[in-house]
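Quick one, T. Sequence first:
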Amino acid sequence: MHLCESRGGSTLFRRPVGRDVDSYFWDEVDMKRIVLFLAVFALAMPVMAQDWARAKVEKSPRHREWVTVKHDGRSVETFVVYPESKDKAPVVLVIHEIFGMTDWVQDLADQLAEAGYIAVAPDLLSGMGPNGGRSTAFTEQGKAMEAVSHLNADQITADLNAVADYALKLPSSSGKLFVTGYCWGGGQSFRFATNRKDLKAAFVFYGPPPDKDAMKNITAPVYGFYGGNDNRIDSTIPQAKQDMAAAGKTYDPVVYEGAGHGFMRAGEAPDASEANKKARNDAWERWKSLLAK
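Structure tokens:
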């Protein structure tokens, strides 16, 4: 018995051949591999395929640019979008999902600018990708997720502080700073509030809370936005409320029933479910109201 390649030479579907092999058995094995491969690919597709988000950004009339924010030997590639306004504008620091810098993150930044804010979204994978690249250097979504998951916490804080400092010094900045994050970035926005004293507010979208002991360092109100069908994150809310209250801090979470994890992105996609779409719209209205306070 020996091995040969089948189905277009793909090493994914190698099969033993020979008269002593039960071909039906190996057909079943190959079919299971195909199903598993397609399932994994399907899960990644909603994040990978964001042509709709890219199209929206490219049609935007607002000025957008990539800048390199340098600090402590690092160069953080940052997406910046400016509002069309005659007045100086507050800054919103946007922390991306576990998928790294995606088209949707840039779309969200543009929407913030449309609402009247200077949006700055650092690619926290800057210099961490293959050949020293950033998020776009990763050809596999899973590899980008792994890289984000293993980012050093101190490096993240230093990157965010550097980008925030850069944005606040922009001539068009009003000097007011907010932070927002999504998924992995939601947890980072909550954690950033423990490290940044001049924040006006932190907006946490379906992210976990920081350590209890760090909450005493928070000086800004924290507003949470969560999907009702996201127990992995929602189960942290009661303890976070208790810990924040004990520390004398403001924490105001809202759960949007029927919505899943990532509803701000999923609710905007062409194939959005009604629950995610409603949650996204309701959360956006609440968010704009809080930003304007």
